[in-house]
Design brief:
Radius of gyration: 17 Å
Distance between the termini: 42 Å
CATH class: Alpha Beta
CATH superfamily: Ribonuclease H-like superfamily/Ribonuclease H
CATH architecture: 2-Layer Sandwich
Largest sheet: 7 strands, mixed
CATH topology: Nucleotidyltransferase, domain 5
Number of domains: 1
Number of helices: 9
Helix content: 40-55%
Order of helices and strands: EEEHHHEHEHHHHEEH
């Protein structure tokens, strides 16, 4: 059994289209033993004027030149696809946004859609803590009394923190991941043919409201 936790960072989301600069991931077994982890540092292939400088100053943990010295998304596409298609469960925090970001780069570089189901830890935490409020990865760590393992907004570290949060919730409740999913059916989502189900449903609700 393989669990894949992933997180992305974006250089820009101008025009509602994400340009990725990090794909961080953790692969574990069902007991949360780490089998593999890495952070793909991605050149978003942007002019300097196209970067989101609020993100550069306040979120990203690396200088622009480090991203620009690495390969662009197509170099990592096959590795990302293999990670996703070989996992039994795919999980993340607000992962529907990251699934969309992967779709955006796939379309940008004319790469085939990667279709898969995934589960949102943030939505599981809402059920766990009986709240309607969205909670950040950092605040979830505090609430669950988990010590930070590194700097936030490094995509690999954020993926690792998300894994620790799920592990903590399962241990607290004494349930398996499959049982947690049954308790939190709204945490399940999917992306097919470049379309994330939850994002498309939200768009339709706005149009018809």
């Amino acid at each position: 059994m393989k669990y894949l936790f992933f997180d992305l960072e974006y250089a820009s989301s101008r025009g509602g289209i994400d340009r990725n600069c990090e794909f961080g991931y953790i692969v574990t077994d069902e007991k949360f033993n780490v089998l593999e982890s890495d952070n793909f540092i991605i050149d978003p292939n942007l002019d300097r004027s196209e970067w989101d400088y609020r993100v550069v100053r306040k979120i990203l943990t690396r200088p622009i030149k480090e991203y620009e010295s690495n390969p662009t998304f197509p170099y990592y596409y096959n590795d990302i696809k293999k990670l996703i298609t070989s996992a039994d469960y795919i999980l993340g925090h607000s992962i529907n946004g990251d699934a969309k970001a992967i779709n955006d780069d796939c379309k940008r570089y004319d790469k085939p859609s990667i279709d898969y189901e995934f589960y949102d830890i943030k939505l599981m935490y809402k059920e766990f803590s009986n709240t309607r409020k969205d909670t950040s990865v950092e605040n979830m760590l505090k609430a669950l009394n988990i010590e930070e393992a590194g700097v936030s907004h490094d995509a690999e570290i954020d993926a690792y923190h998300t894994m620790l949060e799920l592990k903590s919730m399962l241990e607290n409740l004494g349930v398996t991941l499959e049982e947690m999913i049954e308790l939190c059916p709204n945490s399940k989502d999917e992306t097919i043919n470049y379309v994330v189900k939850s994002i498309e449903e939200a768009r339709i609700r706005m149009v018809t409201a």
